[in-house]
Structures are given as C-alpha cells and as structure tokens.
Amino acid sequence: xxxxxxxxxxxxxxxxxxxxxxxxxxxxxxxxxxxxxxxxxxxxxxxxxxxxxxxxxxxxxxxxxxxxxxxxxxxxxxxxxxxxxxxxxxxxxxxxxxxxxxxxxxxxxxxxxxxxxxxxxxxxxxxxxxxxxxxxxxxxxxxxxxxxxxxxxxxxxxxxxxxxxxxxxxxxxxxxxxxxxxxxxxxxxxxxxxxxxxxxxxxxxxxxxxxxxxxxxxxxxxxxxxxxxxxxxxxxxxxxxxxxxxxxxxxxxxxxxxxxxxxxxxxxxxxxxxxxxxxxxxxxxxxxxxxxxxxxxxxxxxxxxxxxxxxxxxxxxxxx
Length: 320
Hints:
Layout: E1 13-19, E2 35-36, H1 51-57, H2 87-101, H3 120-131, E3 136-140, H4 143-158, E4 165-169, H5 174-177, H6 182-185, E5 190-193, H7 205-210, H8 222-226, E6 248-255, H9 268-280, E7 284-289, H10 292-299, H11 304-308, E8 313-316
Parallel strand pairs: 4-5, 4-6, 6-7, 7-8
Antiparallel strand pairs: 1-2, 1-3
C-alpha cells in the first residue's frame, strides 16, 4: 500500500484512508479523510465572510476573515465550506498545534511500522480507525488519490481477469463529474452508471453539469444496483465512457449523502441489502463519505461506526 503516495507531513488540507488489514492488502476497508488547517480535534468553524471581500481575497489574501457587515448590502457567503487562512496564519497555527501536543519530529513517508508513541500521525490514524469501527487507517493527500487507490486495490484482489476494470456508481458521483475522467485517463477504468435512463441516451456528465437535471434525481436505490447483474450473471449496462459490454466491475460506490442532489440519502435498509448484494457477487462496497458525518446524523445512528459498518471501504473528509 506504500504505492498510494501517502504524505506523512502536516498540511492545511489533509486526506486519509482506513483499512481492515494493517498491511493494506486484500479486501481492506479504507476511509480517506481531510482536515482543515488544524488537526483531528480542531474542526473548522463556519465564519461569516463578506461575499465581495471573500471573492476578492481568493486572489489577494486567500480568504482572510472580512469585517463585520455594516449595511444592508453586506451579505454572508454561505458557499464557503471551510475557513481559509493566509499561509502565515496557517503555519503559525500548525506550529502552535505541534507545540501544544509535544510533536517534535516529522512523520516520514514509508514509516508505516512506526509505533504510535513515536508518530503523531500513526496515533491519529488509529484514533480515526477506532471511531469508524475499522482495523486500521492510512493518510492520503487527497480524496481523489484515496478513492483511486481503493479502486486499484479492489480490482487487484477481486478481478476476474476478464474485461476492462470498472466500478459502478450513481450518475452524480464525484468521480464522474469533477475529476476530469481521471479514473479512465490514468487508470483505464470504466464506470457503470446506475440509475441513468440508458434507453433514452448514453450517459453524458455535461447534461448534469450544465443543466438542473440532477435536482430531479433520487439517491441510488437497491433496484438500480440489482441491474448490475443480468440473467447470465453479467452486467446489462454498457460502460462509460467507452460503452463496453464486457467490463469487470469490482467496486460499488455509494455516496452518503448524495451531494449533487441536495443531500438525499439512500434508505438505510437498502444500504444493508446493497452490502449483502456485494458480498454475494464478490463486489467491494465503497462509501464516498466525504459528508458522512451529516449522513450518520440523518440516519439517526448512535455512532460513526454504525454508519460505516456495511462498507468494505469509506472515504471521509474533515474539511467539508
């Protein structure tokens, strides 16, 4: 798993992945998560910004908090998902964080066997794994990287060695809409787009990106997933982008909640049935849980571990 290019250096926006096996081999359970500016116990606060100042500061001072609004023309920009500090402020806060916790040495890439007593990051990974009920965790520098690693590992461990490697997902998956087809360009993966009316037209992400089509969509449902397997045990859906009929699907991705359609959730009983479906058909069940904290609250779960339990892998983000 050292090939996932895990950065053990502190960074204002960090990502992470969890796994069921310390060696990160086999059908591991992965969670990838990101932090904003500070570390595990320092969650970002939503701080009002004057919208005009905020837009300007993207170029100038990188989102330094604006002055308190003083007139009716001043508005609060609710589109900012986290507080963004200037580089100097971010480094100062990082320095204070290390001093407060007695962190005196850098974590070094490749030191995966370093004891937690000697590595802040190793301790952090174990803490996150425990919160999500998983055996282990590993840090990655981006969600795109982490989820790509998950797909590659799942394909290597569950592949039938027939057809192009592929994963299945909802039409609004982040991998389809916001990663410039990286899964296909870099890893030669195909996608099976579930819940799309394939009889009307082939899947086109631009239809979603350039129109309001997504707002009429529902979340991924069990009957969408069951369409993966036909009478002969093969997929009945042509892949995207190459429209191949003979792909090898190794991973089912479920986003909780579905970001692009307003935070809708798949009914929990169907999530459990999807997990059973994946076990029956040797598919890895992966959760794109960048906003899993909201999903867990929405389901009324008592813990994050309860939300993560049905999945073989989970990606999470702390800066959403």
